[in-house]
Hints:
By secondary structure, this protein is of the alpha+beta class. The chain contains 19 helices and 71 strands. It is globular. It is found in: Secreted. Its main location: secreted.
Amino acid sequence: MDFEKSIQEYDIGSVFVKAVWIGPTRERISGSRFVRLQKSELSVSLLMSMDIQDIPGVEFGVAAFVDSALSGAISGELVQISLLQVNDSKSGVGDVQLALMEQCTAASGDITAMSLCRMALPSIGHFALRGCIDDSDGKVCATIELGKNFSEWIERPLASHPNLRIVAQGQDQDIFTAVGQFGKEFEVFVDVPFHNTTFLVLFGNTLKREKMVMRFPDPGVHKMAVPLGRECLGGCSVKVLMAIPRQTSLGLDVPTSVGFDPLGTHWVDRRFNIRIPEVSRELTVNVTIAPPNPSESPREEDELVAISPGENATVQVLVAKCQGDPNAGTSFSCNEREPAANAKVLVIAVDKALLQLMPNALVNLSSTLSTDLFSSVETSRLWPSGVLPKDAYARAVDIVLRRLEIDPWLNEVFDVDSLGGTFDMPDQHLLEINADSLTVPPPGLPYGLALLGRVMNQPQPASGPSAGPSLRVRAASESDPAVRLENQFQTTPLFELISTEADGMGRVNFTAPPNLGTFVVRAYAVTDKAQHGGGEAEVIVRLPLSLTPSVPRIVRVGDEFEAGMIVSLFGTRGKPSPVVATLFADPGASKALEFLSDNGTVLPADSASGAEGVGSCDPGSLSCLAPVTAKTLLTDEDGQVEVRFLFSAVQLGETNLTIRADSGGNSDALQISIPVLAQQEEVQLATSFTIRSDKWEERSEEGLKIPDAVPGTGTLGVAAGVGRLPSVLDLSTRILETRTMVPYGSWALANVTIPAVLRLYGLEQQRTPSGRDIFSRAISAFEEATLNLEISNLTSEIWGLQWVKPRFSEPSRVDTSLNADAIWTANRVVGLLNGEVRELNSGIKRLTKLANVWSSVLERQIVEDARSLSKLGSKIDLATLAWTRLTLGADWSPPRCPSQDSSFCAEATVIEHLSIERLSRNIRNMSVEARAHLALTWLEADKPGHADVAAVVDSFLSDMRVAGRTAYVSARPGEAQPAGLQSQALALLVFVESNSSTQLVEKLANYVGRGGLSNGGFSDSAMAMIASLHALSQYDLSSGSIDPNVALNVSSGSIAILQALFDDPSDPIAESSTPFSALESPPPPLLFETQGTGEVTIVASLEFVPSQLLPFPTYRGIFVERIVQKAGPDNAPSSGPLARVPLATPLVITLQITTPDSLGPVVVRSLMPGGLEPIDPLVDPGAATECTADRLGISYRHWFYPLCPLQETRPSQVTFNYRYLRAGTHAISFQAIASSVGKWMLPPVQAYDEQQPEVMGMSAAGDLFEVCDPSGGDECSEIGADGVRAPSEPPKPCPGNCNGLGLCDLSTGKCLCDSGFSGEDCGSFAEQR
């Protein structure tokens, strides 16, 4: 940033500076500051005693303040204050000619100058209030622009009184919080331009409240003195209520708003807080660390004490207090301190690394433990804030009536508390604003919306050993040292309570723990006089020579990389020193890593000389290990050098690396266990289908081919179940557990539905107690709901069913949608129950009676609406008409005019507008829900063969989209987004009741059964739940799953895979898992056999780790891409896709996910290459996730809510959990650091639907990503052309999507056919040889 330019353009401003530092072990450390910019060291500010609202003739006072950028506020500087008139032909007050009107001088920081330096705008026009002082850099000024010209006053007339301010000495703005002294008075000032003002001052705390009344007959600056007694202990809140009576004259000669009376009575209220500093009970706590041998450890004055592991240091805590007794009043003084004897001191030592990870500042005990007596003083709002004359209201009414004649649809609020605003606008301007507000806005995102989501407790697939290195550190010694194990490391090595001696000193011994680093030693002290304090110091635990690991957290098979240690040698005083680093191998350990020489040849670790037998030596001894290679290096001026050795990851497992460093008789050894993980994780391929057995035996066969998998990783999974009762019970429970503040019409309808649906399953006699319990609760809820729906409760004989019972006023019309819901629900419930449940008979009678009332008011309202619209040349919408026809019947027709009841009849045109034939002509122009209503109208009229039913079913099939085990009807033809859950349930009901036979119906039932795209978040509507209950239960009834009796046997050749019997709708899902190794080779097809009656839903899946990385994306419903780019200063990508970067480069990894269909909960898992370490945004908020939200979110009441995924960051992978994923393309990015040198295998990024993992996709994998060493030569200092990866080509579709019999290579558009199939689209059988 050009600072000079910023200072020139902005007289006083600030610039945001952020720095990111990559540490020696590639840790990311960031910091930021705001830097103030100004031309001079000094700055001036002005404070007007009131905001005069640009009104001429109103006298105000001015105070000035001077600040130094180096030393803060400056008092006593003389500031020349001038009121200048601005030439109206100029646009600003920068360098235009200004005419001096008034002038005065004020001392900076003196608030009382407001009563001496008085000014007023002499007339309408533009003015500048300017305050200036002389400085060595020239004149320093501050300017406030005031006034309006006549045209501006006409455009925005006077609509409010001057804004009064309460100010105090030392405050350069309206007082909000000030500091006072107990027992004194606190003075504030207010400038009032009115006569006969009365002030009511209320102040106090939780102990006491006081009030004062002050009257000021004349205008001017008035002082109020608030006594700070017991009512202000601990601080107090002050509320000032100002009553201004009607004025006789103010001398205001400016245009005034229609709704404003400048002379009228009005009220002003202001509030501020006074903080009273408590008597200091704070102790001074000084913590020092005494080294074991002070004479042998000469240190600089600010150098920290350093000790070795196991050494003892003395923590000295000196506690001092104020002189006297804090409870004795005047005898207590903090001007001098004295030792605090017998103080209790808690001494804690904490690893500083832990405090950096979880910040926990030193607690100020004195303020934390003090009693909070502060209490805010509040008053009810004075309304109205001003009394207006009656002619102001009359003028406002005339304006509203005039505008309504121009635009009868004008939506204008008549607010008696603010008659200004829109009333002062020109008519045309206001009409334009209202016209804009009626225009349908383009799709977009509202501001200020909270991100939604839920925590996905998805178990992580096992892809290898624990993802992270473990440490075993060896002590410094020439001989074989004892091993310091990681499980012996202590984050809090000291936690002890001590007492101080007569000199105020307390001492405690600190034994350095095995772990190296800086420890924060904190001491918290307390005395018997309730005095508290704390202090802290730091101590370093280190060896004369110590090692810090510099290794990747994880590596993957195929990686070739460098790993080692950072050697720190202390006491060299800037002189380079030679260090010998030796790499050891454990001959008996895993062979997951190979040791390489600098030229890449494999070093023979097993045959290294000097290693003793593993069983004949102490496991903590270096003699158990074989030296592999050694390096000699020189430390730098800081006594550090990084030692790295070359390795190759060859197989899964863990390898212990031990490195020992020696220099000048000092040594240290460090052992690290590096996990080697798989190149990719487990994937799942699956198919789902149903077998409906309505006779004694059914057989089905599925081909089975074992994919190429990593040995020992594959399993064949089969899951089977019957019916949708679990979903029905879940919906019923959600309805029964929904509680509203008052009875709600829609939820009452939902409660009356449950018993009718559950009775189909015979739950009153079911074997499981849970089912019988839900049915019992449903009967009680049914009775309560029908009583709530009664007339005089939620139902009115005039307005029908209402959402809630009106409390203050009747509705203006019948809610046609709600009453149609009620009629349809009541008719289906009465038909299903049919008087067969004795406990429900009284409720059924109520429903039957209410349905007649609802039908009567609905048909009257629909006819009235149709007639009104017809007069305007319009028609009732198709959705409302379809819903009405379903509830009133296919043969319903309103009475033709003229009739005996002229208020309830329809002309021929209206009858045509309400005809069912109109719906038949517009089937493809109707929504999914409206089409379903039309089809159900004919089905409930017992006309399943009607042409409209077939047309609706065909339209649903053509708009159906399949996603794995589910399918949904799109919201509109050709669109990917699904229609709402209520629409899907009604479509399913149409399929079932029209006896449509297709596998897609079963998948649609799966979609409805799982609640659409997602469960949770915004609750489904009551009507969506009602429709789902009917649809799922009727589907089970049609498939024989209401009362199943079916046995299933699954086998592959002679191997039994699964056997299950389903004879109850509540039977749990049967599952089996068979390892690939247990199957015959090659495996025979899967044979599915059923006996009995009922529909069995089956999912067969293959779960395995592929043996090879595919160089092209894998697409099975989701397309996934990934690019790695360099991160810029703002963490945004600043380069193209990269293949090679220098060590310690900050990176942005962007994932792009594309799905043609909307999906439920989706997991996106990015496996990390070994040399790139992801940054957890929970640890470093500067690395927060970025995601696109233009098409990602949920629509609710015409607003679009963005929905970014939740992120879980681990060294081996970054996982994102989407609540659900809309059709389209979505991008998400996260931050990483190039942490280790090497050539790293890029594993794939996988995305899958959590509820049906076979809907998945993986990015291309197998490419190498290189992290080079910038110290090795200039070719790695910058990202060159060889480090940029060519952009990926757009995906190419395969013929017929390979018919599901092969894998589509999206890079070439060619199919890789499964065994036994051939052809361009894998649609042919391969020739047998």
